[in-house]
Design goal:
4 strands, 337 residues, 12 helices, four-stranded antiparallel beta sheet, Tetrahydropterin Synthase, Chain A, alpha+beta
């Protein structure tokens, strides 16, 4: 009987302990739910009154996934008020992918107001690619003017030389509109500036004289526009306006002067080469004369030994040489004192 009583008391204590623990757990759950209710009630009420259809469970799930619930709810309310049908899951998935949800929603609203065909998939892809989708839509509605060349990255003019050798310095203003379809993978405005600059240089370079370009600068615009320079870019070129054309240096004359200077230097080098060859030839002939003169005494000695040359013949030769030397000295002009 004693053991049975102890067992009953132990069971009763365990039941009391479990009951207290259960009550505590229930209180904690109620407190947590109450705190969550207080935390998300305002956002839930805003969504409810705006017919955005954001459930309490979705708010708690976003909180657990560390998603900015306010950004998602406000973005969805904005979309619903603008007549767009976007789900909470779409906005949340784009946020988790690192996208700018509010920017995408504003871009979709702007595109809808401007009757631009822009889907959520395209908008999120453009945003995740690093492009500003809202700016692109605004540029598509309100075209932007780009300076060519970019004053911040160049000297401010596009320099080209006509066929007559005169340099022209041009400035252009390019009006572009964003092409939403080519925004993903399309080249940026730096490519447009480079292509327009190349087209201006080609057009000026093909002109016979610089005067024709100054008389009709719009020929540059027409020629450049005809090349279809916006292919493969994220923009559509609407117009190219030549803002200024100035006459630069006479590059042709400078090139001719440089060529003449180079020709003169080459001629001097060739003349110096010929002079050096003549001096070397003269030195060679003098060496031959000296060599031959050194052989004369040997030949004379040999002639004496063989009896082919007599003493009188030798003196006669010396007299002739003396007379020749005297005539040469008389023929030379007198030196001035």
């Amino acid at each position: 009987m004693y053991n049975l009583a102890d067992t009953i008391l132990a069971v009763s204590d365990l039941v009391k302990t479990l009951g207290i623990a259960l009550v505590v757990i229930i209180i904690l759950v109620v407190v947590v739910l109450f705190l969550l209710f207080l935390k998300f009630f305002r956002l839930w009420l805003q969504a409810k009154l705006s017919r955005a259809d954001v459930k309490f469970s979705e708010l708690i799930g976003m909180w657990l996934r560390k998603v900015d619930t306010r950004t998602i709810v406000i973005s969805k309310i904005t979309a619903v008020q603008a007549g767009l049908s976007l789900t909470t899951r779409d906005l949340e998935s784009h946020y988790l992918a690192g996208g700018r949800v509010q920017n995408v929603v504003r871009a979709l609203i702007a595109a809808n107001r401007a009757n631009i065909d822009l889907s959520l998939k395209t908008a999120t892809a453009i945003d995740l690619a690093g492009r500003d989708i809202l700016e692109a839509v605004q540029t598509s509605v309100n075209p932007r003017v780009i300076d060519c060349p970019d004053p911040a990255k160049s000297k401010g003019t596009i320099d080209a030389v006509a066929q007559d050798g005169i340099q022209l310095r041009a400035k252009a203003r390019v009006t572009v509109r964003a092409n939403i379809e080519r925004l993903v993978g399309g080249a940026t405005e730096e490519t447009v500036i480079a292509r327009v600059g190349e087209g201006i240089v080609t057009t000026i370079g093909s002109a016979i004289t610089y005067k024709s370009v100054l008389e009709n600068p719009d020929s540059i615009s027409k020629s450049v526009l005809a090349k279809g320079l916006d292919a493969g870019t994220a923009f559509e070129i609407l117009s190219i306006d030549i803002a200024d054309v100035d006459v630069g240096e006479n590059v042709g004359a400078q090139l001719q002067a440089a060529q003449a200077e180079a020709d003169m230097r080459r001629a001097k080098a060739e003349a110096e080469k010929r002079r050096a060859m003549a001096v070397a030839r003269e030195q060679e002939m003098r060496a031959l004369v000296v060599e031959n003169e050194s052989k004369v005494p040997l030949a004379m000695a040999e002639a004496f030994m063989k009896g082919n040359l007599g003493v009188m013949d030798y003196y006669r030769m010396k007299n002739i040489m003396a007379d020749t030397g005297m005539r040469d000295s008389i023929a030379k002009p007198k030196e001035k004192e």
